């Protein structure tokens, strides 16, 4: 079979289990794609073909399937520890750094038979200063960040699924810009042992994938819960929340959200307009930025103390702000977030999921900025599960996703609603 790299993770696992092809054949097709496209896309921080093939051959020699991800290649964002590959954080400070072991999410994937294909590019310390990755749809444009390499590698058929992390919008924004599915679970659903923290009360391990089913498949392995692959018996009850940021959105984002709501309503969904209380307006620029800067300065204290000259100005400015911040301001931001998390359940009364803007617009031209995170970080602070779904295309021919969010711990419900939405809207 040709182009095995274009198969979903689900189809790869099934095909290998049915002996239609081997794990080595899948990895070779992925490596061929990387060799052809990596000089343009720059999605990988580290790629070791011999190591990838060694893992695949070992799996092929096994008499039976090792687990749900047997033979599935996975990309790993380069702030997540891997024992056999360096973890460099997108920073010269950690050039060649080797961790003592795998992060929990990597170890669990290996136990289920996954092939760790390589380390994907991250913005510096999963922050704002971008790496070299380009948008696979147009390399003159940003892929978003900070999980830039993961999104670009998945969208460009280098790997079927990859890990990302989100503190503000670092999974969903690159997913939207690159045209793949981005999934940020309920906060702390996936064990975070072995990642470099940015802001520990917000950091969430998520997934970049090409299908909703693939995101659920990998998640099921990480949380020890068989995938349910729920399908809705009836059209969902959807909320339309423009958020207080609506006026800052580009026309294409406004069109994507309103077009999705209109078409889903025509397909049978109930769509209810939701306006959140005024207190929520402080979540994205006040609460989230305060929490992020304060916690980031503490998590990077050693890096700042010993290597300040190797930290970018944009990140260094955030660290300085965090060190200068009063503890009571930080606590006030945490308390505001807690109040809003308690009140968001009111908005979900009689609602299965909420449609909301995901990004300001299409991916920006140039690689010096990863885009505006406000639309994603608004929901990140609320700790619930969120997805970017690749449903629309902008005037420049670049993807524009919509955001689908659900109540905390209702990730299965989000998956089911996302499947229904994608069946009605289809990929862009």
CATH homology superfamily of the domain at 4-223: Amidase signature (AS) domain
Helix count equals 14
CA-based shape: globular
How are the strands ordered across the major sheet?
1-3-2-4-6-5-10-11-9-7-8
Amino- and carboxy-terminal Cα gap: 26 Å
CATH class of the domain at 4-223: Alpha Beta
In terms of DSSP E residues, the strand content is 5-15%
Secondary-structure-based class equals alpha/beta
Number of strands: 11
If you average the pLDDT, what whole number results? 97
**What radius of gyration results from the CA coordinates?**
20 Å
Break the fold down into its secondary structure elements and pairings.
Elements (H helix, E strand, L loop, with lengths): L8 H9 L5 H19 L2 E4 L1 H12 L12 E5 L26 H8 L3 E6 L27 H8 L5 E6 L5 H7 L2 E4 L19 E6 L2 H12 L13 E4 L10 H16 L3 E4 L9 H17 L1 H6 L6 H12 L2 H21 L5 E5 L16 H7 L5 E8 L5 E7 L5 H15 L3
Parallel strand pairs: 2-3, 2-4, 7-8, 7-9
Antiparallel strand pairs: 1-3, 4-6, 5-6, 5-10, 9-11, 10-11
